[in-house]
Design goal:
This protein is α/β, with parallel strands linked by helices. The chain has two domains: about 10-190 and about 225-255, Rossmann fold, CATH 3.40.50; about 190-225, no CATH class. About 50% of the residues lie in helices and about 15% in strands. The chain has eight helices and seven strands. Helix 1 (about 20-30) links the parallel strand 1 and strand 2. The longest helix has 29 residues, at about 105-135. Bound molecules: nicotinamide-adenine-dinucleotide. Nicotinamide-adenine-dinucleotide binds near residues 64, 93, 94, 142 and 189.
Length: about 260
């Protein structure tokens, strides 16, 4: 299937590693030009160089903290200037800390809103008017399987990412008339550095091997294994593509069947 992504301009936020990097690679393999950002320069620039070398596409990389509206605005403006427009925007950020409600401070709540909700809003405010003008666009938010099935001790993710789901559904309704499609993709347990570190931390606390923690997670998943970042990225690339032209307002789980509900 030709995804029709050749020469599309794609912004992928928080893309120096993990799911963001995998999405960037998948889009580059389809011929899209990339604008990547993350906070740390060295990993980001190494990722940009790796993708350039492997695919030959143009890659712009800029250090951005996605919590800051001004930095997001400058990054989107630079992308527009250098590439002539923005066709696709995939929002992403780090995850909030794992805590129970009782452990969570007011400052934690505010920080999670800035990191996971406001970051998505900053990108939406910048790119949607550009997409609206050109009457073509794909806006995709990376959320979490926690928006469909809350996860114990992840009250911040369960709550704030659900606000992102509400935002995405509302934007889908508002921008459909402009041929701008807005969706979210919800990763389940996917083997990135972050998940590997989380399993090591839990293993140290319980005095077991990290592999035992990962096996415990895998046992809750009908496919009986953790996901690969590339498997998640394929779903995002499809939603970003010409071929997904009748899909908007969807919240797609890529979780190996982990979510037990029907929807
Ligand atoms: P990761 O830690 O491997 O990568 C996170 C990326 O975000 C890195 O590139 C980092 O530099 C960047 N980043 C973090 N904070 C930033 C900021 N303020 N500004 C700019 N860049 C920033 O994480 P991941 O596993 O790829 O997960 C990505 C997102 O998906 C996270 O929000 C995570 O909580 C969520 N998620 C992941 C999984 C999973 O199993 N991996 C499951 C559900 C949800």
């Amino acid at each position: 299937m030709n995804l029709g992504l050749q020469d599309k301009v794609a912004i992928v936020a928080a893309s120096s590693k993990g799911l963001g990097k995998a999405v960037a690679k998948a889009l580059a393999m389809e011929g899209a030009k990339l604008a990547l950002c993350a906070r740390g320069e060295s990993t980001l620039f190494a990722t940009a160089e790796e993708i350039r070398a492997n695919t030959g596409v143009r890659v712009l990389a800029q250090t951005v903290d996605v919590r800051h509206a001004e930095q997001v605005s400058q990054f989107v403006e630079r992308t527009r200037r250098e590439f002539g427009g923005v066709d696709i925007c995939v929002t992403n950020a780090g995850g909030p800390p794992a805590k129970t409600f009782a452990e969570t401070t007011l400052e934690d709540w505010r920080a999670a809103v800035e990191l996971n909700l406001m970051s998505c809003i900053h990108f939406a405010r910048e790119v949607l008017p550009l997409m609206q003008k050109q009457r073509w666009g794909r806006f995709i938010a990376i959320t979490s399987a926690s928006v469909k099935q809350p996860i114990d001790r992840l009250i911040l993710s369960n709550s704030i990412r659900s606000a992102v789901s509400g935002l995405i559904k509302s934007l889908a309704n508002e921008y459909a008339q402009d041929n701008v499609l807005v969706n979210s993709v919800c990763p389940g347990y996917t083997l990135t550095d972050r998940l590997a570190q989380l399993s090591e931390k839990m293993a140290a606390a319980e005095g077991v091997e990290a592999s035992a923690i990962q096996t415990r997670w895998a046992d809750q998943i009908p496919l009986h294994r953790l996901g690969l970042p590339e498997e998640f990225a394929s779903a995002v690339a499809f939603l970003a593509s010409e071929r997904a032209s009748y899909i908007t307002g969807a919240s797609l789980a890529v979780d190996g069947g982990w979510i037990k509900g029907i929807y």
